[in-house]
Amino acid sequence: MGHNVNVPPTLTTKMTARNVSVFYGPKQALKNVSIDVSRENVTAFIGPSGCGKSTFLRCFNRMNDTVASARVEGEIALDGHDIYAADMDVVQLRARVGMVFQKPNPFPKSIYENIAYGPRIHGLARSKADFDVIVESALKRAGLWDEVKDRLGESGTAMSGGQQQRLCIARAIAVDPEVILMDEPCSALDPIATAKIEELIDDLRGRYAIVIVTHNMQQAARVSQKTAFFHLGTMVEYGDTSTIFTNPVEARTKDYITGRYG
Ligand SMILES: Nc1ncnc2c1ncn2[C@@H]1O[C@H](COP(=O)(O)OP(=O)(O)OP(=O)(O)O)[C@@H](O)[C@H]1O
Ligand SMILES: [Mg+2]
């Protein structure tokens, strides 16, 4: 990192990555990847296990900072501003670029407190009434309100897996993010809970820039408008989801989407 990002912000691009490489110790996990992340579309990252999808996703809110051996090179910008700049507040960044993980990870606190926690530490509300409004609207946007409105005091960890994952999405939404990163958010869920998350992603599209890592190609085809295919640490192909799945340019993409490896 270091030098300034020269990519001007555009109406349709929310985040840009330029020549991003990631190393774990001496081992290079991501090689020179560049992409524009759309503001109003859902972008899917697909590719075989170990190809670097999670590694790349974590660059967008500096989660790799928490991995001692990880080193990131290249440039990543949010609205044209280098997120690796010295004056970037990483706590603020992670509120603007939220993350939802593979395994739902609600805090061992009440449903209400799971949502109120972020707005409290970011000073987004003061009075109980203000917190109530934020909690209700985040739970509504996450499609969970009707299921939990009568038990907001119960523990978030006592919900079903699918509800816990929607709670985690509500928690990310509560701090009013601009981008939501999701790393295989449905892989621990049954088909019905998965369908609910996919519907939710579609509802949230347009309001937040969304990037989702998924192993499930049908899911990528259903929820995304843009798809990036990764293989062995490189981004092989990136384009409209419909094109990637029906008429890819690269032989490696075709082999993967037709199930020849991965
Ligand atoms: N913390 C880490 N320390 C060392 N190597 C790592 C670490 N995290 C990932 N790697 C390595 O980096 C490469 C990319 O891993 P990554 O988790 O990004 O792949 P992925 O595409 O998300 O795979 P999966 O689909 O299995 O989740 C792999 O070779 C992996 O072993
Ligand atoms: Mg992964």
UniProtKB/TrEMBL annotation:
It holds the Pfam family ABC_tran. CDD domains: ABC_PstB_phosphate_transporter (cd03260). Residues 15-257 form the ABC transporter domain. It comes from Sandarakinorhabdus fusca. This is Phosphate ABC transporter ATP-binding protein. It comes from the Bacteria. One of its GO terms (molecular function) is ATP binding. One of its GO terms (biological process) is phosphate ion transmembrane transport. Keywords: ATP-binding, Nucleotide-binding, Phosphate transport, Transport. Coiled coil: none annotated.
